Amino acid sequence: MENQRNQEQLSEFRVDKSQKAALQVTRAGYTDDSQTTDDPTSLSSVTINSGIPSPSPSTLAVPLLSVYKATRDVLPPVREVIEGCRVFWTSCFQVGFFSKRLFLERLSQDMEGIPLFLVLGVLSVSCRFTPCLIKRLVLDALYDPSLDNIQGFFMLALAQWGDGDKTRSSIHMGIALRMAGILRLHREETYDLPPDATTDEIVRSEMARRTFWVLETQDNLHSSHASPAPFGPDDITALLPCGESDFSFGRIPVARAAMPGTKAAQQRPELTALPSRSLFATLLQAHSLWGTVARKARPADFCSDGHPPWDERSNFAAMCRTLQEWERGIPENHLWSVWNMRGHSAEQVHLAYLSIVIVTRLTNVVIRRIYLEDMITTITKGLSDGAPPEFWVTVADELFENVQGLLEPINFFMSNRAENEGFSAMLLFSLYVSGTLSLQLLKTPSLCPRLASTAQGNLTRALEMLVEWQNTWPLASRWLVLLRKAAASVHHGNPRTEVAKSGDAERGCGDNREEGREKQ
């Protein structure tokens, strides 16, 4: 029975070859006699529901209709909903799984045909005022695996994470990931298209592919110590998304990149460093590297192989080499420069580009920050732990060099951002990490004499921006409190205060604890 149910759910994502690959858009668990497949076990192209499916007569109930009607009635006017979605794309989610053109057409022509759960999910992120309404539809969507519902649960999880409620966010993200697994979005064969595929079929297939990778990357981005990976790398054969132009015009790309470590990369290693890979593909790879480091962001994890960090066989040395090799292969227009920032701004994808730059530098910072106590002990106290001469001096210099590299693009963006332009919580978290390390350098300038003079200015700037934007992302208020407390103790001359304990950074990003729960 379970296999039969899964096959029914997968039927939503199959091509009817007998009707020239017309994509089925029937609800999982319901059938459309006009569309059948020759092989009920085959997998092919992907689509999404075109609207709220009609429930069967046996399940149609007045209370359910009342909920939908009541929720529809409290939505803003259509023009405001459309504006909220535009804000979402320009300020929150510049590259992702939505086809902006198709979604706006659906909103303007037939908003009733778009699941409320998805609309409210988008608004809960962009407008920050609808989470209470979206709760009404959670249970109805819970047992209906579809692309719309996956996207809706993802939006809800994203809004809750920004409010500091990790528990609910993780649960709803987990539901979205499980649905993606049921629909086999992690498998490349799910996206097979016939030679005569229409533009609409190509776009819908890409939307599904992007949905999977957005889930995967967001889980990496919000990873904390010892958090599990959602999909085993050996199970992932799906290649990475195409460029925004191909997506918009419904073109099949000439080539696709692969995520390092996945089955797809094992089969074709050259695809991990594809020179023509899309901005979105590079962003996903950067987030994957961050997830790897964040899940092992304690000395014990990186030393679990029995080798000290200065040993070339150690996990630390191997991860540093992986980061260096990946950065060397990044396409030129994905590297940090003011001109690249301007170019991506003109194409309205600058927040995605900025995220690549920030997450790459942050990963380099955190992997070295893990050993901050070792640097302090060796450099300031002259104690030996068996490391080669100057090893910890070099690591400390690399640490604060990356802090400086992290702050440069953030300062440029914040100084030039348009009024009311949004940004991710990860940017504020990066400010917190930079602030704690600037505070440590202010307290112990011998860690990096070359950059010690920048510490006070960097700390002041980090505090100013966290104060200014804590209300936009409530989660940032926790980081501000921690940073202020540490700064006050240092300025009052308390030598016993630990300014930057290893592991605080990744716990601050991935482990929001119970904060924000009162808001729900």
From TrEMBL:
<feature type="compositionally biased region" description="Low complexity">
    <location>
        <begin position="31"/>
        <end position="45"/>
    </location>
</feature>
<protein>
    <submittedName>
        <fullName>Transcription factor</fullName>
    </submittedName>
</protein>
<dbReference type="InterPro" id="IPR007219">
    <property type="entry name" value="XnlR_reg_dom"/>
</dbReference>
<dbReference type="InterPro" id="IPR050815">
    <property type="entry name" value="TF_fung"/>
</dbReference>
<keyword id="KW-0805">Transcription regulation</keyword>
<dbReference type="GO" id="GO:0000981">
    <property type="term" value="F:DNA-binding transcription factor activity, RNA polymerase II-specific"/>
</dbReference>
<feature type="domain" description="Xylanolytic transcriptional activator regulatory">
    <location>
        <begin position="141"/>
        <end position="250"/>
    </location>
</feature>
<dbReference type="GO" id="GO:0008270">
    <property type="term" value="F:zinc ion binding"/>
</dbReference>
<feature type="compositionally biased region" description="Basic and acidic residues">
    <location>
        <begin position="498"/>
        <end position="520"/>
    </location>
</feature>
<feature type="region of interest" description="Disordered">
    <location>
        <begin position="493"/>
        <end position="520"/>
    </location>
</feature>
<dbReference type="GO" id="GO:0005634">
    <property type="term" value="C:nucleus"/>
</dbReference>
<dbReference type="GO" id="GO:0003677">
    <property type="term" value="F:DNA binding"/>
</dbReference>
<keyword id="KW-0479">Metal-binding</keyword>
<dbReference type="GO" id="GO:0006351">
    <property type="term" value="P:DNA-templated transcription"/>
</dbReference>
<keyword id="KW-0804">Transcription</keyword>
<feature type="region of interest" description="Disordered">
    <location>
        <begin position="26"/>
        <end position="50"/>
    </location>
</feature>
<dbReference type="Pfam" id="PF04082">
    <property type="entry name" value="Fungal_trans"/>
</dbReference>
<keyword id="KW-0539">Nucleus</keyword>
